[in-house]
Amino acid sequence: xxxxxxxxxxxxxxxxxxxxxxxxxxxxxxxxxxxxxxxxxxxxxxxxxxxxxxxxxxxxxxxxxxxxxxxxxxxxxxxxxxxxxxxxxxxxxxxxxxxxxxxxxxxxxxxxxxxxxxxxxxxxxxxxxxxxxxxxxxxxxxxxxxxxxxxxxxxxxxxxxxxxxxxxxxxxxxxxxxxxxxxxxxxxxxxxxxxxxxxxxxxxxxxxxxxxxxxxxxxxxxxxxxxxxxxxxxxxxxxxxxxxxxxxxxxxxxxxxxxxxxxxxxxxxxxxxxxxxxxxxxxxxxxxxxxxxxxxxxxxxxxxxxxxxxxxxxxxxxxxxxxxxxxxxxxxxxxxxxxxxxxxxxxxxxxxxxxxxxxxxxxxxxxxxxxxxxxxxxxxxxxxxxxxxxxxxxxxxxxxxxxxxxxxxxxxxxxxxxxxxxxxxxxxxxxxxxxxxxxxxxxxxxxxxxxxxxxxxxxxxxxxxxxxxxxxxxxxxxxxxxxxx
Length: 485
Description:
By secondary structure, the chain is of the alpha/beta class. It has 2 domains: about 1-245, 3-Layer(aba) Sandwich (Rossmann fold); about 325-480, no CATH class. Helix content is about 40%, strand content about 15%. It has helices at about 15-20, 30-45, 60-65, 75-90, 105-120, 150-165, 185, 200-210, 270-275, 295-315, 325-340, 350-360, 370-385, 385-390, 395-400, 405-420, 430-435, 440-455, and strands at about 1-5, 10, 20-25, 50-55, 70, 95, 130, 170-175, 190-195, 230-235, 235-245, 455-465, 465-470, 480. The longest helix has 18 residues, at about 295-315.
């Protein structure tokens, strides 16, 4: 990593780092990004890497070390989940450039990418060094200007990375400007620390606690030079030691400003700064006619009441809407929502809020459905069942069987039941994953295994990579279908 002043080279045990994780802290300008770049360059040929880059600082690694740069602004949230899964399957090092997205999108896109890496099948659990720069953006200690949904999914993904990622080969390296802004349950999972220059008392106190130092020693963090860090951890050293980070081969494209000779402008300054601002020619404003005399308020109310009574007397009474017609309208609204590709990737509470807004616009009232009835309607809509099949006795039996399952599985169960009742080909893992709201085919296989363990379905091979799905007791069975794809 560099050198210990007066003590030789400073080394990091990469194997130990993969098992124990790393936390880097330092104020802006302390050399934090330089440290991460040094770590990435030194280990690029040894281990697969994934960099969550909110500012586009690390895209230059692609030219020197062959990293794939993913411009997140050009892709959907679902595509990020698939990219996280595929980069592990194909063992490619990736820089996820989140530049150009707002804070809410950065959190959700990063969470989707981390989720894809986390949910791959066990076959692809190869070691990956996952570097998250500006980690306080993705694991904030308190609510900020972003939505609660974005903060929840991002914090959950970061917690999974630091708490449960080791068994899946994911080694988290998180860097933050301020420890006080980073969620404690995320920071506490690191066993290696590189603490740089910081000035705020609360950050110095937390850094001292993590390093096992006394509070009176915390002020020493103010005296650290740029590019110098206090190191501790099984992958670094057993006692706190000063480390000066070495040189790097690549450069950030967003380097800070440098001093340059100052040359005053050649033209007179007052002509440049105080030049007249062009004034747009605005059309002449039409003069208003004087207001008509306002009648007495009581007279207005009386006239309005009489006019309304006459209109009600002339209008025919509206035909009351039946429950079936009302449910049909709500089903149509829900099907229209699910036509959006991103809808399959949104959680049920988010879809529920969108559904209520659309129902109000359609005149169905402010509280058209409660959450429980919405989940049942959502499961039926995701199954893709037609109106003819939905009134059949087989479909009523399928809905009865689905009612005993967890709410998040009912849509998948009805989707499979519809394919079997209509005698279609067995759905692929990709189709099942989409109905569930993910792009992880591994999760789709686990759902099928869960249904088989409870003696609800049976999967049997049909040759050439195909399979047949049958429902136990109901007698429904699909045609042979390809499992993958």
